[in-house]
Amino acid sequence: MPCAKFIVSGRVQGVFFRAATRDEALRLHLTGHARNLADGRVEVVACGAAGELNELERWLREGPPLARVSGVERTMADMDPPRQFSVA
């Protein structure tokens, strides 16, 4: 099962970005996590089918209503897929 790591920049902290990302990942049947980074960005690691990872990336580029996403970087993540999606 492929895993991808996304680094999301912009106004993405303090706007329910991680919780909304968890909800979207669960809707897409993805596992992984979303966590704030010290520099104001959000890291999202997601594992699942390639089509769903692509759909999550499209969603991350928009984010929840209060967010203002300025960029999304995507790389492959070499890891064992977790069982659930968590927010840290």
Q: What does this molecule look like?
A:
With 88 residues, the protein is an alpha+beta fold. It has helices at 17-27, 50-62; strands at 3-11, 31-36, 42-47, 68-76, 85-87. It is globular and about 30 Å long. The relative contact order is 0.36.
Distinctive features:
88 residues; alpha+beta; 5-stranded mixed β-sheet; 2 helices; 5 strands; globular
Instruction: Briefly note the structural class of the backbone.
Output: alpha+beta
Distance between the termini: 22 Å
**What are the secondary-structure elements, in order, as H or E?**
EHEEHEE
Biggest beta-sheet profile: 5 strands, mixed
* Tally of individual helices: 2
Widest sheet: strand ordering: 4-1-3-2-5
* Helix share bin: 25-40%
Q: What characteristic shape results from the CA principal axes?
A: globular
- Beta-strand portion reads 35-45%
Compact description:
The protein has 88 residues and is an alpha+beta fold. 27% of the residues lie in helices and 38% in strands.
Task: Break the fold down into its secondary structure elements and pairings.
Blueprint: E1 3-11, H1 17-27, E2 31-36, E3 42-47, H2 50-62, E4 68-76, E5 85-87
